[in-house]
Amino acid sequence: AARPAATGVGLRRVGGQFDQPVYVTAPPGDRRRVFVVEQPGRIKVLTDGKPAGTFLDISSDVGCCGEQGLLSMAFAPDYARSGKFYVDYTDKGGTSRIVEFRRSSNPARAVRSSRRLVLSQSQPEANHNGGQLQFGPDGLLYIGFGDGGGAGDQHGARGNGQNLDTQLGKILRIDPAGRPYRIPASNPFVGRAGRDEIYAYGLRNPWRFSFDRTTGDLTIGDVGQDQVEEIDFMPKGTGRGANFGWRVFEGNRRYTGGESAPGAVPPVHTYTHGPGCSITGGYVVRDPGLPGLAGRYVYADYCAGKLRSIRLAKGRGTGDRAVGLSVPQPTSFGEDGRGRVYVVSQTGAVYRLVAR
């Protein structure tokens, strides 16, 4: 456990050593188990914080590593009944795949042969694959894809962030229960020019985004280019059709000239490169055991390693400050069924934020 911070928060390591962990989550309502996603292609189970075996192993299908690999998972809202969950990974050819699996009669194991391809997206480069899956408060599946990689949103005459004819540089919203999926009629570009799957656009690499478990608000940590990292925030229901500005803007700064980003929504918080290099988006803390962080969004930077928190509201973030804790190479945050918050290190450790 780390030394207590000024906010009365510390870190407790759980589950031993993992192989390049990149995400932590839990089934809805499950108060005992958490699932740790390992980038090479495995999902491990912890029960009451102790290792309980491998839930799924698809490492033979996964192209790893760098910014590729098995990148996240999400349990269906009705997982207790349906046993369905979804994973996002890049295959051996570099294509992003969203795949449905089912658990077996043993709740600690999934059925590998139950796989069903929901959606795929070719990736021009090996970076900026996004990879986050989250079920929103509306029960629909949200998918984050980066802009196709390389640098400067270089693919196509207009890049991909502002191009509504591609899924790259976007957050998508689908109902995965269809065959292969259904498009919600309320998606912003249904019946208009643009891909029907798009929910929000103008993103460079929304590596991690989350929904506030209390309010349903959406927060995105969008990784910057060479200078600016940003946090984007939209109160519940207001993110539909939002344009976050990339590649015209990097944070609040102009990145390209002679191009437009119609209705661009500015970030609520930015920071420039120095000790930092790549934002790791987190969660709004709703764990009643952490009153010093209550209602504050916790995030980090992959290079700096320092955990920070900020209070978010429409159009602004206030009170950004250090939590007083550091984790080497933080790749992700996560929540369990109780709303407790975890932070994951690429070096193999998973920590839970605890009161001290």
Query: Strand-and-helix sequence, N→C?
Result: EEEEEEHEEEEEEEEEEEEEEEEEEEE
Give me the secondary-structure category. Answer: mainly beta
- Average residue pLDDT: 96
Distance between the termini: 10 Å
Shape: globular
Please count the helical segments: 1
Which blocks of ≥5 consecutive residues have pLDDT under 50?
Answer: none
Largest sheet, order of strands side by side? Answer: 1-26-25-24
Number of DSSP-assigned strands = 26
What profile does the largest beta sheet have?
A: 4 strands, antiparallel
Helix content: under 10%
The portion of residues forming beta strands comes to 35-45%
Overall radius of gyration: 19 Å
Brief synopsis:
Helices cover 1% and strands 43% of the residues.
Architecture overview:
- With 356 residues, the chain is mostly beta strands.
- The protein has one helix at 79-82; strands at 9-14, 21-25, 33-38, 42-47, 50-57, 70-75, 84-90, 96-103, 110-121, 133-135, 141-145, 170-174, 198-201, 208-211, 218-222, 228-234, 249-250, 253-254, 269-272, 279-284, 297-301, 306-313, 316-326, 330-335, 341-345, 350-355.
- A hairpin with a 5-residue loop joins β15 (218-222) and β16.
- The longest helix is centred in the N-terminal third of the chain and has 4 residues, at 79-82.
- The model has no long low-confidence stretch (mean pLDDT 96).
What order do the helices and strands come in, and which of them pair?
Blueprint: E1 9-14, E2 21-25, E3 33-38, E4 42-47, E5 50-57, E6 70-75, H1 79-82, E7 84-90, E8 96-103, E9 110-121, E10 133-135, E11 141-145, E12 170-174, E13 198-201, E14 208-211, E15 218-222, E16 228-234, E17 249-250, E18 253-254, E19 269-272, E20 279-284, E21 297-301, E22 306-313, E23 316-326, E24 330-335, E25 341-345, E26 350-355
Antiparallel strand pairs: 1-26, 2-3, 3-4, 4-5, 6-7, 7-8, 8-9, 10-11, 11-12, 12-13, 14-15, 15-16, 16-19, 17-18, 20-21, 21-22, 22-23, 24-25, 25-26
